[in-house]
Amino acid sequence: MSAAPRIPDWVPDAARGMIAELRTRTWLDDAERELLDRLATCDAMKTGVWEKLPSEPKDFQGKIIHRAWVAFVTFRRRPRPFPGTKSKAKLHEWDRHLRRQTLFPDFGHAGNLLRMVLDQINRHHGEAQAYWQRFWEGDKNLTLDQVIAIMDQVSSFCLKADAEYQAFFRSLPEVKHWSGSKPARKFFTEYMSKQMIEAYGKPLDHIVAALEEVAFDLAKGVNTETVRGRRRKPVRPEISRQK
User: Fold this and answer.
1) pLDDT tens across 134-191, in order?
2) How far, in Å, CA of 151 to CA of 42, rounded?
3) What distance in Å separates the CA atoms of residue 34 and residue 59, rounded to the nearest whole number?
4) Model pTM?
5) What angle do CA 194, 42, 75 make, to 5 degrees?
6) In whole angstroms, how far apart are CA 241 and each of 237, 238?
7) Is the preceding omega at residue 8 within 30 degrees of 0, hence cis?
C-alpha cells in the first residue's frame, strides 16, 4: 500500500478529514487509493472545485469528496448483469468483475437462507427439540425456541438491510453499457449532478466537470457542455397508435 501524499494547505479541513477517513478502508485497491490521492492534491480541485464552490451550505466540502468517491467506487464494484453474449472477452470481463464485487454484501441471499433453515426447524420442531440438549453447543441457558426467535430476527435484519441496498441501487443512474471508460464517466457525472442539485439547487456543471477530470485523471480536462448534455436526456415523442 502506497503512503498517503501530503495534502496541500488549500484543501478545506472537511475535505481533508474525509480523505483521511476514506483511506482507512482496508479493501481499497490501487485505483481507489489513487483516486483519493488525486482528490487531495490535483490543482484542478483547487481552481475548479474549491475556489468556485458556493459558500452555502457550509462544510459541504467533505460530502463532495465522499460522494465523488461513492460515484467512482460504486460503478466499479456494484453487481453487474450476466452478459447476454457468448463472447469470451465479455464473459471473462464479467468473471473478473465478480472478484471486485465485495463492497455490497448479499444480505437478501443470507436472509432468505435463514428463512429456509427456520422453515425446516419449525416443520420438524419435535425432532429438533429432542436433539437439542445433546447437540446444542452454544449457551446452555438458551432454549430451542429462543434460538428460533433470534434467527428470525437476524433474517428480518438481513432482509431490511437488503431492501435499503436495493433502494440505493434504484436511485443510481441507469447503466446501459459497462465496458470502457465512457460508461463510468457518464455514471459519475450523472450521480454528482444529482448530488449538486440536492445540495445547492443547481447542477454546477463546471464543478462536476472538474471533479470528473480529477477522478479519471484526464489530461485534456472535461468540457462543461459534455456534462450538461449528459443531464439532458432527450424526450422521445409519443407514437400514435391510431391508424
Assistant:
1) 999 999 999 999 999 999 999 999 999 999 988 888 888 888 877 778 999 999 999 9
2) 49
3) 24
4) 0.74
5) 40
6) 12, 9
7) no
d(CA 53, CA 149): 52
Domain residue spans of the chain: 13-78+172-189+200-208+216-223, 107-167
Please spell the DSSP secondary structure of 184-243, one letter per residue.
HHHHHHHHHHHHHHHHHSS--HHHHHHHHHHHTT-TT---HHHHHHHH-PPPPPPPP---
Helix axes 13-22, 30-41, angle to 10 degrees: 170
Q: Torsion angle of alpha carbons 29, 31, 34, 35, nearest 10°?
A: -110
Residue the block writes with cell 419449525: 122
**In the structure grid, which three cell numbers stand for residue 202, read together?**
443547481
DSSP character at residue 53: S
The answer to whether the beta carbons of residues 47 and 145 sit under 8 Å apart is: no
Could you report how far apart the first and last alpha carbons of the chain are, in Å? 66
Residues 35/22, Cβ–Cβ less than 8 Å = no
H-helix or E-strand containing 40? helix 30-41
